[in-house]
Amino acid sequence: MHATFKKIGVVGAGSWGTALALLLERNGYNVHVWGNDPAAVQRLRADRENKAYLPGVPLPENLHFTASLETLADADLVLLVPPSSAMREVAARLSTVALKPEALLLSCTKGVERGSGLRMSQILEETLPGHPLAVLSGPSHAEEVARHAPTAVVLGCEDPHRLGQLQSIFCNATFRAYTSSDLTGMELGGALKNIFALAAGVSDGLQLGDNTKAALVTRSLAELVRLGVALGGRNETFQGLSGIGDLMVTCFSKHSRNRSVGERLGKGESLGHIVRSTSMVAEGVPTTYSAHECARKLGVETPIIDSVRLILDGTFSPAEAMSALLSRDPKSE
Question: In what helix (H) or strand (E) does residue 167 lie, and over which residues does it extend?
Fold first, then answer.
């Protein structure tokens, strides 16, 4: 098994990149993590802890950190874990490195590019053509993966052989990887659910209760499926881990950045103040705008996404947005 990927690179030293690197290192692989900030990389080496993004989790000496993308030139597998808004820039920088032509690229970022409407794997296909591509998605908070909490995800690749190789290196006693050929549905489910987690957080911030939140999350799934299918995903994918599974954990978890941002919005904080007060990225914010643009182009009805955008823009207060949702014309489920 270990001969399959002799060296693995992880592009992104945030919480998720670090957690995935830890997982693969524990599974016996030679893992090198690239970080954009040389000073932060040096602190990781010295502290053996990612105090900024994953505090309290020790980093073993066998886990390598680098500020040079050239270090990843001979990697057999490269995980890409930057924020979605930085994926194109990071991938362009990686394209200047002489990667192995057969190096497998695994996108672990959940988002949709604003303007183009492209998924993360499509950006990689544009900027790093010729490399085999795969996607990882599903309900998987970094804080829990790093501490060995039982977790199940989905890996997607159009090449069954490559998919089997990936599945074998990720699985262990606490981490289970299922497989899918529907990269489109996987990526859309993982991206769109962050928008609905913002809405769920707003409901929490307004202290509207469990009935409201249950209704909101249920209708969010209907909206996610409606837009996701229109964008090319398969309905059954959205009923699985990268759809309803990811939606549930992101809407209800204490670890969810998107739910937390929504809760703060519901309590009256401005988006600008929230963004300035945290180093963490809430992917639901940029994805709201991307999804809203895609929905308008396709003529898909997305009342919850529309309401979240109005809140982010400051056009509606959270209470006004919720009232507008509830005052829509009655319809069948």
Answer: helix 160-170
